[in-house]
């Protein structure tokens, strides 16, 4: 399943200093266990448009169980802008496009197809000792 969200950035203190990260990152362990993934586009307001591939149960939990407000959205294009202003430096940066995010984060069907090809290549390498991938 695919879900789109607007999520704020958070700060986490670490030994090497503070780290700024998207609040959906709080679910990283659950996403890995669910064979899920995320891609984000930072937008103005210290927030991100986030595309998430995960089970419906986890997609629902992202909104319900977060300690900050994460908004589920239907259409990311309503929130996307071509540029954003850095909240720390004030510099203007070019945003990734929705199309770039769509290419980077596969839906369930495309992810399954890619995994099937990879698993077949792995199986072939066990039998033949190598795999030649055609161009």
What characteristics describe this protein?
2 domains, 4 helices, Alpha-Beta Plaits, alpha+beta, 5-stranded antiparallel sheet, 32% helix, 135 residues
Description:
This protein has two domains: 103 residues, 2-Layer Sandwich (Alpha-Beta Plaits), CATH 3.30.70; 30 residues, no CATH class. The chain is 32% helix and 31% strand. The chain is built from four helices and seven strands. 19% of the residues are buried.
What's the helix and strand layout?
Elements: E1 2-14, E2 17-22, H1 28-33, E3 37-43, E4 47-53, H2 56-64, E5 71-73, E6 83-85, E7 92-94, H3 98-104, H4 108-128
Antiparallel strand pairs: 1-2, 1-4, 1-5, 3-4, 6-7
Strand/helix succession: EEHEEHEEEHH
CATH fold naming of the largest domain = Alpha-Beta Plaits
The domain tally reads 2
Unreliable spans are none
CATH architecture of the largest domain: 2-Layer Sandwich
Main sheet, how many strands, which sense, barrel? Answer: 5 strands, antiparallel
Mean pLDDT: 93
What is the 3D shape? globular
Structural class label: alpha+beta
Radius of gyration: 18 Å
- CATH class descriptor of the largest domain: Alpha Beta
State the separation between the terminal residues, measured CA to CA: 31 Å
Percentage of residues in helical conformation: 25-40%
Count of helical stretches: 4
What's the number of extended β-strand segments?
7
Strand content: 25-35%
């Amino acid at each position: 399943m695919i879900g789109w969200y607007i999520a704020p950035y958070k700060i986490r203190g670490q030994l090497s200093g503070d780290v700024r990260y998207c609040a959906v990152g709080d679910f990283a362990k659950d996403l890995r266990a669910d064979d899920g993934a995320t891609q984000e586009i930072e937008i103005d307001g210290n927030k991100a448009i986030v595309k998430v591939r995960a089970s419906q149960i986890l997609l629902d939990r992202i909104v319900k169980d977060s300690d900050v407000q994460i908004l589920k959205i239907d259409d990311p294009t309503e929130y996307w802008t071509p540029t954003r202003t850095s909240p720390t430096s004030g510099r203007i940066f070019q945003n990734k496009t929705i199309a770039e995010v769509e290419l980077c984060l596969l839906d369930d069907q495309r992810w399954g197809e890619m995994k099937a090809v990879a698993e077949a290549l792995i199986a072939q390498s066990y039998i033949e000792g190598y795999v030649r991938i055609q161009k």
